[in-house]
Amino acid sequence: MSGAAGPGPPVGPGRSPLPCAPRPAAALQLSGGTESARPGVAVIDLRFPRGAAADIQEIVFKNFYTAFLSVRVQRPGPGGSRRWVTCLRDLCLMPCPHTEQGAQDYFSLHRNQQMLCDMDQVTAVRFILRQPSPVWLQFTIEELQIFPPGQKSPQKDFPSWLSQLTPLEQPASLHGELPDPEKVSTEVQQMWMLTEVIRTRQAAARIGRFDVDGCYDVNLLSYT
Prior knowledge:
Blueprint: E1 4-6, E2 21-22, E3 26-27, E4 41-47, E5 58-64, E6 68-76, E7 82-92, E8 106-110, E9 124-130, E10 140-147, H1 160-163, H2 181-208, E11 211-212, E12 215-216, H3 218-222
């Protein structure tokens, strides 16, 4: 399972993200609290203002050296309670955690393509980041944006004079107006025969200028 990735943000013009407040990435530590004991896992929690719920269509972000990403959402449960559901598990953002590939790419996650659960009535989103490589000391995701369903890019504005142009007239249909192919073939054959007759007569006329009383003058022909 993979998300759409690219060097630039995959966001169309005219789209408005949902208002939200993601917290800074919090690195998890093993018991003891030493820096060397960090297991390469960080968590980012995101909530919507005033505890509101939102329907999520797409999540867009820029990676910063995170190798794998999991996403959990908080949705309504039985009896009005809230429960956490995993909707994305270990999405690979960097094919090789020890190299730069994918380390700073933009990613887009769609509810109908990558998500494993329903993304309606979400009150909180939790991003679980993993980076097993010791090469990168810091890793997170940046420029995090959440988009609701039903948004479409607006049409571009055109000059008023362009909208007043009359549409081009459709060319008249030629079906049924084409001549009979047999007739065309016959006429072409007749034209070819007429051309051959004219060519033959022209050749005879060129030779006929040496004709003297119905006979050819041998002396005249010898000079040609």
